[in-house]
Automatic annotation (TrEMBL):
Protein name stated in the entry: Phosphatase
Pfam families in the cross-refs: Phosphatase
Matches recorded under InterPro entries: Phosphatase_SCO2771
Organism: Streptomyces decoyicus
Length: 271
């Protein structure tokens, strides 16, 4: 079993926490967009109140460990690995609770090239524990807005994990996978559940719009978030996101395998 000390060392070595690759400039730019309620930064969340940049900085300092100094405007962001571990422990608690009541779960990612393996390990374990892993709206078309125009995509599932794939692309798992922050995929999936009069998810797991979009619609949601994704941490502060784990969400996919083992062990879901 991976212990806390070994996990902390891995987080720093893999740059999942400690000094990460996300730049201060990128994070501050996203905080400004969020403060202006730009949909690109809201990720499907409708904040209950205004969040000026200064308040966002203070919140992100508390939740992630980034500098709350507004005069610090350049360089690389920093995540406190102890905050990451604390949230991974809470993440594991929610997984264990869902498994204990065999709750239906919905798992989706906007980072298929990086995080698919992490979520697939969770889906396998939860399914083995008796949780229905939902795959609603399989094959549905979802048009994703990008800075280059509307991108036609298809909602698909790989090992129980929802992701968006460029329409018409086939091949290996994750081939044609689209990096997206949009909440439209989870809204499409949940609408399909409602239309089929099936059981709603007892827990949504993921990142970006999958977490904020589900939480906004009243589904318990837990997930991973980088320092340039303030929406998940605001959602947590306002009570619509149960767990937001601060980490770099764009390192090589193999770096997340120890995290999956850690949370599954903590949740008593290891096989």
């Amino acid at each position: 079993m991976l212990g806390t000390g070994a996990l902390r060392a891995h987080l720093i070595e893999a740059r999942l926490a400690g000094t990460i690759a996300t730049t201060r400039e990128k994070s501050l730019g996203r905080y400004r967009l969020f403060a202006a309620r730009d949909p690109r930064a809201l990720l499907g969340l409708d904040p209950e109140r205004d969040w000026p940049v200064g308040e966002l900085l203070r919140l992100m300092g508390q939740k992630c460990g980034v500098s709350a100094d507004p005069t610090h405007t350049s360089g690389l962001d920093v995540i406190d690995p102890d905050r990451t571990i604390a949230e991974l422990d809470r993440f594991a608690e929610r997984l264990g609770e869902a498994a204990g009541r065999r709750a239906p779960v919905l798992i989706g990612t906007g980072h298929p090239h990086r995080l698919l393996g992490f979520y697939a390990a969770l889906a396998d374990a939860l399914s083995s524990a008796g949780c229905p892993v939902l795959t609603p709206a399989y094959g549905a078309r979802v048009d994703i807005a990008t800075r280059f125009g509307v991108r036609p995509c298809t909602l698909t599932y790989v090992r129980g994990v929802a992701l968006m794939r460029e329409t018409g692309v086939r091949g290996a798992p994750g081939a044609g996978g689209v990096h997206t922050h949009s909440p439209l995929p989870v809204r499409t999936a949940l609408a399909a559940v409602g239309d089929a009069a099936g059981p709603l998810p007892g827990l949504a797991i993921g990142d970006h719009g999958w977490v904020c979009g589900a939480g906004q619609l009243g589904i318990e949601a837990i997930g991973l978030a980088d320092t340039d994704d303030p929406a998940l941490f605001v959602g947590q502060a306002e009570g619509r996101v149960s767990v937001a784990v601060p980490l770099d969400d764009a390192v090589p996919s193999a770096c997340y395998r120890p995290l999956a083992r850690y949370v599954l062990n903590r949740a008593r879901l290891s096989r």
